[in-house]
Amino acid sequence: MSFLDTLRQWDEAAACVDRQNLAEALRIFLSIQEPNSKIYFNMGCLRLINQDLDAAEKAFDCSIGKDEHLAVAFFQRGITFYKKQRYEESVADFQHAFKELRGNQLIDYKALGLRYKLHACEVLHNMALAEAQLGHWEKAQENLVKALNYKTEAKLSLIDRALQSTLKQKLFKPVEFPSKVLFQPNKHYVAELEKKDYLGKAKVVASIIPQDAFSGFAPLQPQVEDGPTDPKAPEVLRALEGEPHTVLFEFVPETSDELAVVPGNIVFVLQKGADNWASVVFNERRGLVPYNYLERLEITLASKQNEDGNNRGQGATEPPRREPPTRPERKSAVILDNKSGGDAQPEGAESTENPSCIVKVHFTYNVAVCVSPGSPYATLLERISKKLNLPAASIILSLTSQATAQTVIDANTEMENVWSSASESRITLWCNVKEQVDGKPEKQIHLVALHSYESTNPEDLTFQQGDTIILLSKVNQNWLEGQCNGNTGIFPAAFVEEVPVNGQ
Length: 504
Prior knowledge:
This protein has 504 residues and is an alpha+beta fold. Among the domains are: 3-167, Serine Threonine Protein Phosphatase 5, Tetratricopeptide repeat (Alpha Horseshoe); 246-300, SH3 Domains (SH3 type barrels, Roll), CATH 2.30.30; 357-433, Phosphatidylinositol 3-kinase Catalytic Subunit, Chain A, domain 1 (Ubiquitin-like (UB roll), Roll); 446-499, SH3 Domains (SH3 type barrels, Roll). Helix content is 30%, strand content 17%. The strands form four sheets. It has a five-stranded antiparallel β-sheet with strand order 6-5-4-3-7, with no helix packed on it. It has a five-stranded mixed β-sheet with strand order 9-8-12-10-11, sandwiched between helices. Helix 1 runs antiparallel to helix 2 (22-31) and helix 8 (137-147) runs antiparallel to helix 9. Mean pLDDT is 77; it is low at 214-219, 231-239, 300-309, 311-317, 331-354 and 436-441.
């Protein structure tokens, strides 16, 4: 099957998905004789929607076999293994997906035709869930703490809720790939599927030279005696920027700054870097292509004919090699959608700065914060104060549940002794609230439920209309954390309102 036939069927199947005809889309995909990695991925997603887990696993196997660097395929196969309760294999696939992220915060697959961003924190989130299913709660917590280094603002509450669930040894829901989101064929290639009539209808064009009997398709041009015998140099080719090259091998991009090309395409090289990557223009799009995938194209212009004589074209050129050359090394990955504006890490680079220590804090509810081991007391207190949403001056930290002169941690404490008590980068502390100078305890904020709320996740708080809730912290502008009837959890802020408390 030719590339054009594959492209035509791929586009037809994608249109069926848009019309919600998933069965017909799957039938068309299966009829493609030599599917590429993206088409196998699409088949796996459709199988997964139909809950045909065995067939989905085989499709993702083929996708990974075609492209062993397709992180989203590892992610989807990990989801498939999780649904089949093969948790060890699920963990392994999520680890592969995270490795292919190469230390980046996310991969945006839009440039490859898939409207999806694979976030590193979501991969680690699912890896933690699979570890939890195996009973490895400590490994689950490690993965979630690691996810905190890769989270975005939009994913902050997701990781925090999962971390709270693991502290209570409760399971949480996996992050799943959105249904019916598939790899789409390149729109520029699809646009060229239909044949175009570039000539139009034939016209008879008269010559301006008297008694000239010529007629045909040639454009009307002024003619003079003793004019040049060579054809005029095409203005379009002379006006294009860059040096023309022919594409010898198909190139599938792996990052958003690379450009997809197929054999026979004519690209214009703007700049060739020392790393053997070339910046090119193709169909009004710019991107990077390996220079050893290209061959310089000699365009026969009038000026070149005058310089080179009439010997051009006498000998046949050698056919291109069948096997593509080795892909050149990239210095850095630029798929990163880094909101902080920092530079991308080099490929394969691991962040080794300031390994974190998990500090589990017992309060009226349990929380966990990450602090670099060896941090001073002020830094530790600030992190806990921010997490509990309490003034730092009102917090008493201790190494045991009973705050005594020997166990209290304050500004005079030798912090080296505190951090030395940490085991496997974990330490447990207890937190109490000081009384104010007038002897009254710290004022609590009480809320009243305007509507009943049934929890849909283990970390949610269930309450009935009219119940009183003690506010513990503000998760974000839409969610709060509170305590009601002896239970602690999060709930929508719109379901409650603040009420004054008598005697406080």
